[in-house]
Write a structure and sequence with these properties.
Elements (H helix, E strand, L loop, with lengths): L3 H39 L9 H19 L6 H18 L6 H19 L3
Helix pairs in contact: 1-2, 2-3, 3-4
Length: 122
Amino acid sequence: MTTPEELRSETLPEDDEKIALGKRLDKAAWGLFLIILGCLWLIPDEKIHEDTWLLGAGVILLGLNAVRFIAGIRMNGFTIFLGVLGLLLGIGGIFGLDLPVFPILIILLGLSILIEPLFKRR
C-alpha cells in the first residue's frame, strides 16, 4: 500500500514541471506584450489606431490561457477576463464604436462567475 508521503513525492515532479512551464508562459506573454507595445509606439499615430494595443493585449492574454489549457495548466480567470475586455474594447475602438465599458464589465463578471465552475479542478 502506498503511503501519503509516497503519493506526494510521486506527484511533485509533474506539478513542479507545470509550475515552471506556467512561469515560462507568463514571461513569454509579458515579452510579447512589451514587444507589441514598443512596436506600436514606433508607428506614427496617424498610421495605426490608438486602441490597437488593447486588441494586442487581449489576444496575448487569451492566447496565454489557451496554451495553459492545452498544457493542462490551470487557467487564470482574471487574465481571461482582461483578455476578453481588451479584445472587445480594441475591436470596438478600431471600428469606431463607443462601447459602454461598465455594462461590459458587469456582463463579463457575470459570465466569469457562471463559467468558472466548468474549468475548476476537483
